[in-house]
Specification:
Blueprint: H1 7-17, H2 20-28, H3 34-41, H4 49-67, H5 81-88, H6 95-115, H7 123-130, H8 136-145, H9 158-182, H10 185-188, E1 197-199, E2 202-208, E3 217-222, E4 228-233, H11 237-265, H12 269-295, E5 301-303, E6 308-313, H13 316-332, E7 343-347, E8 353-357, H14 364-380, E9 391-393, E10 398-401, H15 414-428, E11 434-438, H16 446-462, E12 466-470, H17 474-482, E13 486-494, E14 499-506, H18 514-520, H19 525-537, H20 539-625, H21 628-649, E15 666-669, E16 674-678, E17 687-692, E18 695-700, H22 711-714, E19 732-733, E20 738-740, H23 746-760, E21 767-771, H24 778-789, E22 793-798, E23 808-813
Parallel strand pairs: 5-9, 8-12, 8-13, 10-11, 11-12, 20-21
Antiparallel strand pairs: 1-2, 2-4, 3-4, 6-7, 13-14, 15-16, 16-17, 17-18, 19-20, 21-23, 22-23
Length: 814
């Protein structure tokens, strides 16, 4: 009887066949510390959606912080947990170990200072930083006693400073004496070479072996050849003894300093160990961010409904393999084999079973492993190599039966081993688990195997598991096509080139194309023809072949549709681009038009101001001279000014010559600022009848200085270019000497009162009424401020009660 497989064994086997350890090793390669790398290799999987989302968010925050201008990086640090444990137990530490502790303390302070202010941008990282301790006093003590090379500073304490000075003086005296001995001819002739050395930390001379008896002293060493004997001269024995005593005193003081540091370290040992683990976690997070950058991976949203909606998903290990190959090819200056082909994998929550069929080596198993790795990566906080706006289901357990499970040590054939795993899976798998089966129930009779595979697939889905299988069994393809909650998918095969495209198509099964692939691989043509004839003779296989041909035709049609869809998408994008360009150009034209109108209004205002000044000068001169000749000359001068100004402000393209005007055409009287309708043709006449509103009046033909476009012929035409803006018509009747500007904007009201005063100044009126109303009082204030500076006005006052009160201003003219 076969022993049932334990749950942990099944889960571990799934991680093994999915090559999860390869992903973790790739992650560990981005860690900068041994502790961080160890955490990467033993990455823990979340057991709830909330925990998994928190892990993904931590990775996203680290990626964001790393991409900032300030960046985030750690210096390599050692695993000091054994050292800290020894310190807690009262053990002694070496100077180099304190140096490493000082580096870690400095790292902790740097990390704390960098992450704490990011409470809004990176709240999870900021919370980690809040747990880090403060080690300013300990760091200061270590730096005071230990130098950058990990040695005790001579100035660590006054006593050590004094002892090191004594030792230095002792050594200098011995060296001077040794140099004096070397310079003596009697001694120099006995030496192997002209130098002195240290043996057992005592100064010695390299004496030739045959001359050993001629140099009294203590032998400390002999060379490997035996030709040289290292002798401490007798006269230096006492001095070497003094140096040795001084060295022992220095070592005793150093040990005392290190013991004092160890006592200071004991209160911090526990928190330092915790913070050291926190640094390792941050190192692991930085490795996750780095791997995300390498894989061009994106964070995904998680759900507990089993919905998988992956856009342009790529197998992470294939991406890494392609990157390594590209680096190797770059070094050899060769061409790359291409990028990993992405696939859209869309499985709604109501799809409990996915059946992937298609040719061998077409990518079915790759898709199976991709789904399994993505499920594990999402639970461990790793971003997925797919496009944005993707979604991944949270699967609390992942089971995978992929590859040959034969186990000779347990006397299990391939079929028996697979069935044993399936038995354990049915016993242990929980609802919501992801189950990946690569060609289940093979290596046995096809009919029985297909029936067994179908029964297992139905049982697993009934237990609310998400099951993805690859198969060549037609029975499973029919099941996925006919039963609700199941979906067919196929690894696409390009029939014209007899090669897989490595794209997954959803909604239709795929054919195995075994004979075609065998031919592509170089099998004998006669053998292939024999196989094809045997297929055609088998009625069952013949029907399957017919279905395969239909599937192939559907796949080719789908590819054509995809090409057309891609073309339509490109055309739509181009259209949207052109529309955007047109909008921008229209905006530019409107901007230019606004600028032209603005310049035209400015020019008009300048011309009007110049005309006003000239009119005012003529009026003032006429008032002074008060002579008939002067009045006549003034009228002629005013007429010249009017004609000149009208010519400057008129739009020649918008006017029609007088001799072309007909009865019913619109004409303009510039002096009054009104437009009327011709009642008779102006040919050979000095005056013509005009209809203005409901009234008719006789007007001098010469006063028709501005002629509007002909109503009967050009009202429907659109003039090209930008025309001058039309002048506002003044709602005033000069005969009544009243101007009504109620409801007008201040700028419009100012323009109308300027025009009104220009016109009324040519009459004999000495008093006019300006009706502006009460309102907020702003219009009244603006108008009265203008009247104060007007050259036509001698004074003004608010109207009396019977004149309209303060809503009217009575203006006295010069």
């Amino acid at each position: 009887m076969v022993v049932p497989v334990k749950k942990t064994v099944l889960l571990n086997k799934a991680e093994a066949v999915l090559e999860w350890s390869s992903v973790l090793e790739a992650l560990a390669n981005h860690a900068i510390s041994d502790m961080g790398a160890d955490l990467c290799r033993s990455l823990q999987l979340a057991h709830s959606v909330t925990d998994a989302e928190s892990l993904l968010e931590e990775t996203a925050e680290m990626l964001m912080v790393s991409d900032r201008k300030e960046g985030f990086s750690l210096m390599p640090f050692s695993d000091l947990r054994p050292v800290l444990t020894r310190a807690e137990k009262g053990g002694s530490l070496e100077a180099g170990e304190f140096h490493k502790i000082g580096i870690v303390c400095g790292q902790i302070q740097i990390v704390r200072a960098k992450l704490l202010p990011l409470g809004v941008l990176a709240p999870l990282l900021s919370q980690k930083a809040e747990t880090l301790g403060h080690y300013a006093d300990l760091t200061q003590s270590i730096h005071r006693c230990i130098d950058e090379e990990g040695d005790v500073r001579p100035t660590a304490t006054p006593a050590l400073h004094k002892l090191t000075d004594t030792l230095r003086v002792s050594k200098e005296r011995i060296r001077k004496r040794m140099e004096a001995l070397l310079n003596k001819p009697r001694v120099a002739d006995l030496l192997q070479e002209h130098y002195f050395d240290l043996r057992a930390n005592r100064y010695v001379l390299p004496v030739r072996a045959e001359c050993r008896s001629q140099v009294p002293g203590i032998v400390h060493d002999v060379s490997a050849s035996g030709a040289t004997v290292f002798i401490e001269p007798r006269e230096l024995v006492e001095r070497n003894n003094e140096m040795k005593v001084a060295e022992l005193e220095v070592e005793r003081e150093i040990r005392k300093i290190l013991n004092d540091l160890a006592q200071q370290l004991i209160p911090y040992a526990g928190t330092l160990a915790t913070d050291l683990h926190c640094l390792a976690e941050l190192d692991c997070l930085a490795a996750k961010a780095a791997l995300s950058r390498v894989l061009d991976a994106k964070p995904v949203s998680l759900n507990a409904r089993g919905r998988v909606w992956l856009n342009k998903a790529r197998h992470p290990l294939l991406v890494l393999a392609r990157l390594r190959a590209a680096r190797d090819l770059d070094e050899r200056s060769s061409e790359s084999d291409g990028e990993v082909i992405p696939n859209d994998l869309h499985l709604d929550e109501d799809i409990r079973g996915l059946v992937i069929s298609g040719p061998n080596a077409g990518g079915k198993t790759v898709t199976l492993k991709l789904l399994g790795l993505f499920a594990l990566m999402a639970r461990s906080g790793l971003h997925l190599p797919c496009a944005e706006h993707s979604e991944m289901g949270f699967f609390p357990e992942v089971y995978a039966d992929i590859g040959d499970a034969q186990d000779l040590s347990r006397d299990l054939s391939s079929f028996s081993a697979h069935i044993t795993q399936m038995i354990g899976l049915l016993d242990h798998a929980v609802p919501g688990a992801l189950v990946l089966l690569d060609e289940p129930a093979t290596s046995t009779d096809p009919t029985e195997g297909a029936a067994l595979a179908e029964a297992m697939l139905l049982r697993l889905t009934e237990q609310e598991m998400k099951v993805v299988v690859t198969t060549h069994y037609p029975r499973l393809k029919v099941l996925a096509q006919a039963r609700p909650g199941f979906l067919n998918a196929s690894a696409e095969f390009d029939v014209p080139t007899l090669s897989p495209t490595y794209r997954v198509r959803f909604g239709m099964p795929g054919g195995s194309s075994a004979i075609d692939i065998a031919g592509r691989l170089g099998m004998d043509e006669a053998l292939l023809e024999d196989a094809q004839q045997r297929v055609e003779q088998d009625e069952t296989v013949k029907s399957e072949q017919a279905m395969t041909r239909i599937v192939d035709e559907l796949q080719q049609r789908q590819r054509r549709l995809d090409v057309e869809l891609a073309g339509a998408k490109v055309a739509r994008e181009e259209h949207e681009t052109l529309v955007q360009i047109q909008r921008e150009k229209t905006a530019q034209i409107e901007e230019v038009e606004r600028d032209l109108k603005k310049n035209a209004r400015r020019k008009m205002a300048e011309e009007l101001a110049l005309a006003k000044r000239k009119i005012h000068e003529v009026v003032e001169q006429t008032k002074k001279e008060r002579a008939a000749i002067s009045a006549k000359a003034a009228k002629e001068r005013l007429a010249d000014i009017e004609r000149h100004t009208s010519a400057q402000l008129s739009d020649s393209s918008a006017h029609v010559p007088l001799h072309e005007m007909r009865v019913g055409d619109q004409v303009e009287i510039p002096s009054l600022g009104v437009v009327g309708t011709l009642c008779e043709a102006p040919e050979s006449k000095r005056r013509v009848q005009l209809r203005i509103g409901e009234r008719e009046m006789s007007v001098d033909v010469q006063s028709l200085g501005g002629v509007a476009q002909k109503a009967s012929r050009e009202n429907t035409s659109v003039s090209e270019g930008v025309s001058s803006p039309p002048r506002p018509r003044v709602s005033a009747d000069p005969a009544q000497e009243v101007l009504d500007v109620r409801g007008k904007y201040a700028d419009d009201a100012l323009y109308e009162i300027e025009t009104f005063l220009d016109q009324i100044s040519l009459s004999s009126a000495s008093l006019v009424r300006v009706i502006h109303g009460h309102g907020t009082g702003k219009l009244k204030q603006v108008l009265r401020a203008y009247l104060k500076a007007s050259p036509y006005v001698t004074g003004f006052r608010p109207g009396d009660r019977y004149e309209g009160g303060d809503g009217v201003t009575i203006v006295d003219l010069k």
